[in-house]
């Protein structure tokens, strides 16, 4: 089984983002960037499938500026075999990324694409489902378990109120939820080895994809700030305030 | 043109996030509700004020909310509608982007406000910023953040129920089973009060301290991602950016430090109470009432005190 794992370069999840003063977006200059955490889980799952002998090759792909090479290198250091960078400097929406990935799928013919369920920058939660739609493939979103099964894949999904089990035909798309696995840290020897693994660079035009955004950002602003309230000295005082001041119990 | 809402239901009642989605949809045009599954759920949807028509199908292929047949149906119905909406629930988030891609439009995920027919507000970066975006697509496909819209009442309307069209099932996936936790407690995203525990709970057994107080208050039980990661609570209890977004009247955070990703899931609550032994914990910066103390001492007292009239 050949695996494709898309990875996104995002503001590191520990960074407290700041809205730009002119309201055009959030500050990303001189901010630590990392691989989207859900994509790390996707890479980890791919590597585990390969280690179990269920996968033969893992291709990491990223779309964005040239610096996305860093995230591809991280995936290579974790165990992916080679990388593809689709270099583009402007905004890329999930629909455009799904079209780019569809073109990569046509080129590489993977059996399974493993994506993070959501990127922590635009919080769209869409690329996997959109790619599945464009390819006409089944989708298993928010998975906490995946195993090869007769005629395809068996997956467990995190849904409201519990879990759901599905059988998917291959080729398929799955998107990762938190509990799927705990991603490894790349070891130094593997980081060194990753430097020698190949990364192919393409442009959207090479893939024949129009990536013009459909959404215009009118403005980006800070959400209303919550004021810190007061400290209470005892449980009795807390319950009294909740009853008589806030009137919520 | 009318707008279509894909309804989440439990086989009989329509979920509160769906009623919030109807409230958002009313700002865009005449609301039609698509109900897949039990007839009783279609009848419940017909009673929602603001719903002009219910389209119903109980065809087997839609029984489990599988994304592929459901998205195919939405696409088949899309011609008559300017906007297609669903709550940003596990079901809506699974189906709507797929339908959007089939229609060649960019989905608008998790909107928190409707500015006009083309322009919407949505949280980005875990709610640390709000983006107002204008869509150039001819049709909008949207999921709605329920906590941001007051739900329409469950009763008051009487819409006609018509049959939804049937489309071929692409047959790409198959439902094998589900493990849904049955609980007497209210659903997290619909509860008026939520009591959540964090890593400081220390074990899954200790979570009964939270459950016991929640039951006294008629509250739902939540958890921080740290508590879920540590195995103290199931994933569907998770409140936060990567879990559920809640906005109850009262949110009680117990032993939760207040990581950004947790705050994203609960900071729109009307009243926030923080109980934590670390007085420097960031949760106190958003709490209306803070109590510094050991939760294992405070919570039994809290339970006893709320029991007094």
Automatic annotation (TrEMBL), chain A:
Top-level taxon: Bacteria
Keyword Manganese attached: no
Signal peptide interval: none
Electron transport listed as a keyword: yes
Keywords per UniProt: Electron transport, Transport
Annotated Electron transfer flavoprotein alpha/beta-subunit N-terminal domain residues: 23-211
Family stated for the protein in its record: Belongs to the ETF beta-subunit/FixA family.
This protein's name: Electron transfer flavoprotein subunit beta
Species, as recorded: Paracraurococcus ruber
Taxonomic placement: Bacteria, Pseudomonadati, Pseudomonadota, Alphaproteobacteria, Acetobacterales
From TrEMBL, chain B:
Domain Electron transfer flavoprotein alpha/beta-subunit N-terminal: 3-179
PROSITE patterns listed in its UniProt record: ETF_ALPHA (PS00696)
Swiss-Prot/TrEMBL keywords: Electron transport, FAD, Flavoprotein, Transport
Pfam family, one: ETF_alpha
InterPro entries linked to this entry: DHS-like_NAD/FAD-binding_dom, ETF_a/b_N, ETF_a/FixB, ETF_alpha_N, ETF_asu_C, ETF_asu_C_CS, Rossmann-like_a/b/a_fold
TM region(s), chain numbering: none
Coiled-coil residue spans: none
Highest taxon above the source species: Bacteria
Keyword Transport: yes
Similarity section: Belongs to the ETF alpha-subunit/FixB family.
Protein name, UniProt field: Electron transfer flavoprotein subunit alpha
